[in-house]
TrEMBL record:
Ranges for domain Flagellar motor switch protein FliG N-terminal: 8-105
GO molecular function: cytoskeletal motor activity
A Pfam family per the record: FliG_N
InterPro entries in UniProt: Flg_Motor_Flig, Flg_Motor_Flig_C, FliG_a-hlx, FliG_M, FliG_N
Family designation: Belongs to the FliG family.
Mode of membrane association: Peripheral membrane protein
The protein's name: Flagellar motor switch protein FliG
Gene: fliG
Residue intervals of the Flagellar motor switch protein FliG middle domain: 118-191
């Protein structure tokens, strides 16, 4: 055992290991723990700020995984633990577990801000004095603070960093005043975001019904102003179940470009109608092989199914753009001769 980890408990090492491996790999480990063990590991993840890369490496070596040693620090805290647990256990179980793990502890000052999106918090902080912003970011998870800082005006961000570097210890009363003043603004900002009428999903549905070609014209125009928004709408326009809109010939063309593992995984979360549509456009032998592969998968994570479906839809979108596949969207006046 290394001197770096000899004073660490098994629970502490497990928490570091899970944070180092990330949601997917850590899921298998967390799934094998008893409820009390899981809660203990969660408590440790919440208490972690930053773990030295050398400590991470030694922990990984002890678990016979030296090849996975990272070259960067591992960040813990509420945001990291929450993300990890939601990915592996689902939002409901994660929230219950986090609640149990923190019920006997006073939450860190300003920790509630870490549940906001960095861009949204940056909008709130943009109206505050640079010294106030510096105090706030100094009391947040470092990775989250860095992401928020990137969203601020460059001049303000530079001023904030300068003030953070010169900052003395903050009195609890001052921090309490900042917290009280900011909480209302943060809650109001979050509510405003939830009530904003903008909805990329609605735009995607409208464009799905637009005549062929018009949808791309609109997306190109949106992309000139905001490419990320255009990409988001494009991704929402055509979901996996919409493969029902592709005819048999198109399905056969799509299948030629798909990885069989992705297809079987994606179909685990598909409707009976879509499974039948796919199966009817495969040979008897290929169809049987697909069904066997789906059965062999057993229980799978929803996130893995969604990822496989997304990879397939990326292939479908490429084929549609190339003209190899036709999607029979509503609103099209095109007629075909067979």
């Amino acid at each position: 055992m290394s001197q770096l980890t000899e004073d660490m408990t098994g629970t502490q090492k497990s928490a570091v290991l899970c944070l180092a491996l990330g949601p997917d790999a850590a899921g298998a480990l967390l799934g094998q723990l008893e409820p009390d063990q899981l809660e203990a590991v969660t408590r440790e993840m919440l208490s972690i700020d930053v773990v030295d890369p050398k400590v991470v490496e030694e922990v990984l070596k002890e678990y016979h995984s030296a090849s996975l040693a990272p070259d960067h620090s591992v960040y813990g805290g509420m945001r990291a633990a929450s993300t990890l647990l939601k990915e592996t256990l689902g939002a409901g179980k994660a929230e219950a577990l986090l609640s149990n793990a923190t019920k006997d502890e006073d939450p860190p000052r300003l920790a509630y801000l870490e549940m906001m999106e960095p861009k949204l918090l940056a909008n709130v902080l943009g109206e505050e004095h640079p010294q106030t912003v510096a105090v706030i970011l100094a009391h947040l998870d470092m990775k989250f603070a860095s992401e928020t800082l990137e969203m601020l005006d460059k001049k303000l961000g530079t001023d904030v960093l300068f003030r953070m570097a010169k900052m003395d210890k903050i009195q609890p009363e001052v921090l309490s005043m900042i917290e009280d003043g900011l909480r209302g603004k943060a809650e109001a900002s979050t509510t405003d975001q939830m009530e904003t009428p903008g909805d990329a999903g609605k735009v995607a549905k409208i464009l799905n019904m637009a005549p062929k070609g018009r949808d791309q014209e609109v997306l190109n125009e949106i992309g000139i102003v905001n490419q990320k928004l255009a990409d988001r709408i494009r991704a929402l326009m055509f979901v996996f179940e919409d493969l029902l809109l592709v005819d048999g010939k198109g399905i056969q063309r799509i299948l030629r470009d798909l990885d069989s593992k992705d297809l079987s995984l994606a179909l685990k979360g598909a409707s009976p109608e879509l499974k039948k549509h796919i199966r009817s456009n495969m040979s008897e032998r290929a169809g049987q092989a697909l069904e066997e592969e789906i059965e062999l998968l057993g229980a799978v994570r929803i996130s893995d199914v969604e990822a496989a479906q997304q990879r397939i839809m990326e292939t479908v979108n490429e084929l549609e753009e190339e003209g190899d596949v036709v999607v029979s969207r509503g609103g099209s006046d095109d007629e075909f001769i067979t």
